[in-house]
Specification:
The chain is of the alpha/beta class. The chain has two domains: about 1-170 and about 310-335, Rossmann fold, CATH 3.40.50; about 180-300, Rossmann fold (3-Layer(aba) Sandwich), CATH 3.40.50. The protein has twelve helices and 15 strands. The strands form three sheets. A seven-stranded mixed sheet has the order 11-12-10-9-13-14-15, with helices on both faces. A six-stranded parallel sheet has the order 3-2-1-6-7-8, with helices on both faces. The protein has a two-stranded antiparallel ribbon with strand order 4-5. Helix 5 (about 135-145) links the parallel strand 7 (about 115-120) and strand 8. The two termini are about 35 Å apart. The model is unreliable at about 350 (pLDDT under 50).
Length: about 375
């Protein structure tokens, strides 16, 4: 079997998920051609696991001061280039098309009459799960950005819907946890705003990763440019994580048993929904704005227990090797029955709301 696999490269989360899927697909006997869009090729890093990959302009969301910039997003669009890229794909060379919220492969497959399978967190919001609706315009953009007839939505909990656990494997790094060290990854905020947020908490040390950082140490903040190997090492040893309310990094933090504080990106319904879910499940804390008083309270919280998710990438790859035609509800039930939440979670959210047990998942 040969698959065309599209990946939205605007943020690192989709690429992280694709890094987990690449070896799992090969182990399942599948040949894969990867296509990345939404970021210039020269801005991609540590891409060796994908072999010879394609890189296209695609679509991306522009941001300013921690919020989605509608004007910046519109001015960055290249619709004629997008149409040319869509029409240039040769689907006859592939048995299957997979899109991780990547618009060129998704829309190309639709126009060619080829069925594409979506894999990603965004597809979970097609189900009846807790979510921030946002404006009608933003909901329409999210639904039609990278459409797929069949989709494997991913989330931290199933909420009684046929969605899967995260694809976010943890690097096997053996280090001691330093509870007073916090990793900060807020790439859509300015470095000055990040400094103002944490610089007064001198009993703690902060390791901040930012695309515009000048590497070095300033007070209690150690600045780094993004790099997966160093980031994974620091993440493994830190006591907590402050980040935007994206999906992949939070998924890694939950599995490592790291204290988690998220700041959802303004104007981004997905991140607002993620923040809502983390609070409902009692798995993380939220600040709507960069607020040192929230950080001060969060720093005093105890270390949480780990969430143990199964090897979703391997299971999904075997499912794709069989053509991706199996019942998604059965796949979902199989994986959630292997998931282990912290003691006391007991299918109850922080609000006291009873959540569906995986043993009765999707059975009515």
């Amino acid at each position: 079997m040969k698959i065309l696999y599209g990946v939205q490269a605007t943020g690192n989360g989709h690429i992280t998920r694709a890094r987990a899927m690449a070896p799992a697909l090969r182990s399942a006997g599948i040949e894969v051609d990867f296509l990345f869009s939404g970021r210039p090729r020269e801005d991609l890093f540590e891409m060796d696991s994908f072999g010879e990959f394609d890189c296209r302009t695609g679509l991306t969301f522009a941001s300013r001061n921690g919020r989605i910039s509608t004007l910046g997003t519109l001015t960055s669009c290249r619709p004629l280039r997008l149409l040319r890229d869509i029409r240039s794909l040769r689907f006859a060379d592939y048995n299957l098309v997979v899109t991780d919220y990547e618009p060129i492969t998704a829309w190309g497959a639709r126009q060619a009459g080829v069925s594409a399978i979506g894999i990603g967190h965004q597809y979970a919001f097609e189900q009846a799960i807790p979510q921030h609706r946002g404006s009608l315009a933003r909901r329409l953009v999210m639904r039609n950005f990278a459409p797929a007839k069949r989709a494997l939505g991913l989330h931290w909990y199933h909420f009684g819907a046929p969605i899967l656990p995260p694809i976010a494997p943890i690097e096997p790094i053996s280090v001691d946890t330093r509870e007073r060290v916090v990793v900060v990854y807020l790439p859509f905020e300015s470095t000055a705003a990040i400094s103002a947020l944490v610089q007064d908490f001198t009993p703690f040390s902060f390791i901040a990763y930012h695309p515009e950082a000048t590497p070095g140490t300033q007070g209690n903040i150690e600045w780094h440019r993004p790099g997966r190997e160093t980031f994974q090492r620091d993440l493994a040893s830190a006591g907590g994580v402050i980040c935007n309310a994206g999906f992949e990094l939070a998924s890694e933090a939950l599995q490592l048993g790291k204290k988690l504080l998220v700041k959802p990106m303004g104007g981004q319904p997905e991140q607002a929904s993620n923040a809502q879910a983390l609070e409902l499940l009692g798995l993380g804390s939220v600040m709507e704005q960069l607020d040192p008083s929230v950080v001060a309270h969060w720093l005093q919280q105890q270390q949480p227990e780990k969430v143990v998710y199964p090897d979703v990438a391997a299971t999904v790859s075997r499912w794709l090797a069989n053509g991706g035609v199996g019942d998604i509800a059965d796949l979902s039930r199989e994986l959630w029955l292997q998931t282990r939440f912290p003691k006391g979670f007991s299918q109850m959210g922080e609000s006291g709301e009873c959540l569906t047990s995986p043993s009765t998942l999707h059975r009515t």
